[in-house]
User: Fold this.
Amino acid sequence: MNLHPATLEVVRNALYAIAEEMSVIVTRSARSPLLKEAGDLSSALTDAEGRLIAQGRDIPIHLGVMGFTVKEFLKRVPRERLREGDVWFLNLPEVGGNHLPDVKAVRPVFVGGRLVAFAINLAHWADIGGAVPGSYVPSATECYQEGLRIAPIPLFAADGPQRDAIDLVLANLRGRDEREGDMFAQFAANDVAARRLQELFAHHGGDTIGACFERLHAESETQMRAAIRALPDGVWEGEDWVDDDGVDDRPIRIHVRVEIAGDQARFDFTGTAPQTRGPVNTTYYIACSAVYYAMKALIAPDVPPNDGCYRPLHVHVPPGTVLSADPDRPVVGGNHETSQRVVDAIIKALAPVLPDRVIAGGPTTSGVLIFGARQPDGRWAILYEVHGGGEGATAAKDGASAVRVHMSNVMNTPIEVIEGEYPIMVEEQALRLGSGGDGAHRGGLGFRRAYRILAPELTLTSMLDRRVVPPYGLAGGRDGAPFRITLNPGPRERVIRGKETVQLAANDLVVIETCGGGGYGPPAERPVDLTARDRAEDYRG
Amino acid sequence: MTTAGVRVGVDVGGTFTDLVAWDGAGQMSTLKVPTTPDNPAGGVLAGLAAVARVAGPCASLAHGTTLVTNAIVERRVGVVGLVTTRGFRDVLEIGRMNRPHLYRLDLPAKPEPLVPRRLRAEVSERIGPDGSVLAALELAELPDIIRHFRSEGVESVAICLLHAYANPAHEQALRLALAPHFPFVSVSSEINAEFREYERTSTTVLNAAVMPLAARYLDDLVARLASGERAVPIHLLHSAGGMMSVEAARARPLTMAMSGPAAGVAAAAHLSRTLGLPRALAFDMGGTTTDVCLVADGVPETARQRKLGDYPVRLPAVAVESIGAGGGSVAWVETTGGLKVGPRSAGAAPGPACYGLGGHEPTVSDADLILGYLNPERIYGGSIRLDRARAEAALDPLRRRFGLSLLDAAHAVVEVANANMQRALRLVSVQRGYDLREFTLIAYGGAGPVHAGALARDAGISRIVVPAHSGAFSALGCLVSPLRYDAVQTSRMQRRPPLRRPELRARDRRGRGEPRRAADGVRAAPSPALRLRDRRERRVHQPPGDRAARPRRRHAAGPRQLESRVARRHAPRLLPRDRRHHDAALRARLAGDRPNDSRTSAGRGRVVDDARPSGPALPRGSARQSVDRGRRVNEVDP
Assistant:
């Protein structure tokens, strides 16, 4: 079909507007702070085959996975069962998923009785049941211990909310009211998206929109192929390690073999460690999501991400590895720890090919600490806090200090919020001087935060990495300093591990020092003005 | 108020200074003079002289300027020293840790800190979240800090202590101690009395950074105007689309940072009040960008936080959604064959091809000309006659590339540009829960009226207003804006025990006992003229019918009083039954006529002491207070 040049742009804009509007609706109508304040959610549209067409300006780790969710959903739920007005919910890692807290809502969109598209959004539910509040269980050895596993189920239909099914879900979670509000927010976003898509089809006609979908895929595919073709053909290998899995104390290897051939790239993860007992396993979809992120960031940042964009990227993960674990394995940390290590391995593999594009190692972890205290009235106050660190250096610049990198981008919680709402006092927040790896360009600095516990009893859960295996330097740059968590620094101090649950008492002091970034290039080649600046601002301590 | 002369609105833009003069009898004149960046006050004075020749002497001046914005963008700002709570001097450099872009490894993940680490000093002190003093302020540490700052050439000091919004005592003590040593001091609890230490520090520091420049400009302007035959009252436009006194502008110059877009939005708001439009969209399409802002019940929507450069500014500002599509936006073909428009713009120079100023690339304005939307016979911007042949030549490659007729190619360019703008319209309305179809589009700016029809049709909007004087609309905005001050105060409310009257009365007393500071930040000034003006401003804050009943309450509306007033009325409704802690941001907006402006019908002054949770259904009226829910404890059932 011959498309008018303006039509494609008009439709493209409309599709992105719909995806963005979905995220706005969830943020406006959800009830939990994790969605309203931190924005831990994403939205997308797919065609009738479940192929990603448009996405909001959301979180890369989610968006990569959502390209699989509808495709896998359609393998489980025959098309004949889909009805106008349905909204299906699911969180199974093995059905185009990642970990249990990320719940996806899928709405089939019909025009004239014909299935034409899907609206999908993903929201991180602050609790999905399981052994502890917040559903992060470092000692979990089965997925069942991590919370409620939701196989695809229509919680809403044309005749309204399906109360029995909704109640079954809510009965298994903490914070029932908040979760119900979040669930309805997801429904509302999908509902509006469906209406907007139907208007778009009515305005332009199904054939035109169908042709636009194909063109959008084709355009991104063309651009991605061109970007790959600009790389030399060849095979490169890279590897990195996850510190440990929280259950067994040994590093877990992620190995990738990248083969560039013409306008295609193949990523083979043979050699990656077997699945683990603890919760750092993850899914093939997350491995793909990490590959997609890495290639977009390294060679194609401006290509519109959709199914076509990823067609030239082929991912092979042998069965039974930490990147392709059995469905009953625990996965909660793998989502944001192991996934980031996949990005690291790819960057290390391609560093010789793209010396001007790559970035040295950084805080490729969400740096999660969860403080949970039972209040006098029996309710739980739970602070879910993420910690960034020093960004890696590049050939062109020093790394930034205290940031989030790569696939995660959630903000920290202000000190004034923590102290106002939780039984915790923050005694210090300062740059961790000297933590950046030296180099011609220096890694960014991590930071130090000291939490004084005011509650009589408090449970602390850590779920972070880069505490044992430090962020790597590149091209002769030095490694950054790894994470360090200390309980009550001094003669009787104790180190807290990266994936651990600890019981704390009043007046305990928890000091987290986050990792610095890796350096780039030999330290001897550091420009004089940058050295002078380090000295003036005392960045090296 | 029978002073002779005209009231003048002045909008100082990057290239031109627009002036509007109004004689009170229905006569309006507009004027354009070149902006003089090196001598900004001189440009304004030259404009006023020109106005005097055409319309008569200036009786009062209302003024919007991009001075502050440009200073920050171009980093022509003062050397700032920052004083923080011990242990927290790096808050400014640590920030919120998120990065502005997801896939760009080549771009900086965060901006350079506004104050370098060596100029960030710590003092021993600590205040808790409830305002209690946990550690006393050690003033003995100050001499070393003062010496260090002076040796580094610091001329402006920013003070931001933890939880100062809950208890400003330590910040005030520091101000007293530092004021004799530095010409400019900016205190966080006066600039932005809200929790979130990073955003508050950033806002306070930026304010400190522009204080020297703003003071020099304002002093110069006031002095020059005072040297004339008689004093001309001056007011300045702030980012939220209202006017403020010179004193307020001197203390909080950062509030002028968004006054450029605010001026047009203020004019649109005035129009919507005059025409009685409950829902309007201000649509300003210029050469490079298009700004869209929602106006509900005659009041522009304001955002609580914006970015300036890459730095957060937590001050109320018109909630303008800006997109990179304007009349000068360039149409181009993507490698994959798609037609794109913008964000690159031909700007004012060389400008669209049809201007004949050396531009060769096809722009939206060239397409508009070919389609007959622009008049080739008319003179634009004083001297430009549009050249259709040049426009056709510029569009020719596109026409051939797509195998279209010239008209179809031009139409395609306009459609793509409109699609970009459509997205901005939709975002502005849905983010606040409105349906676009209820709106009236108020179109201004060079290209706004040209595109308004097609946009309105696609959005289902059935009414468009194209104002007269749309070229000098921003200057008009200065002229018609009411006085308006915004204050915000974070309050931590507790459900159990509930707020009781004795406690509230205690808070009231505490508020009154503080150094007297009205919600507008206006302090009693030494000069008699300024003091007089202050008094008049306060007077108009009072709701006309209510003056006798509660005379003092109304103009002593400091943040503390507002807090207790709002809490008393609304705490029971605001706090969900199952929550124990609750942060509320108490916001007050006071609006009224400028002292000598009682002749206008615009926004008669009143304070609506009627707060309610913010949401789509806003109370009608020209002023309002609102309480919005802040962050809560994330509680989970046992």
Notes: Residues 360 and 392 of chain A are 4 Å apart (CA to CA). Residues 359-541 of chain A form one domain. Chain A touches chain B through 89 residues (CB under 8 Å). Chain A has a mean pLDDT of 95.
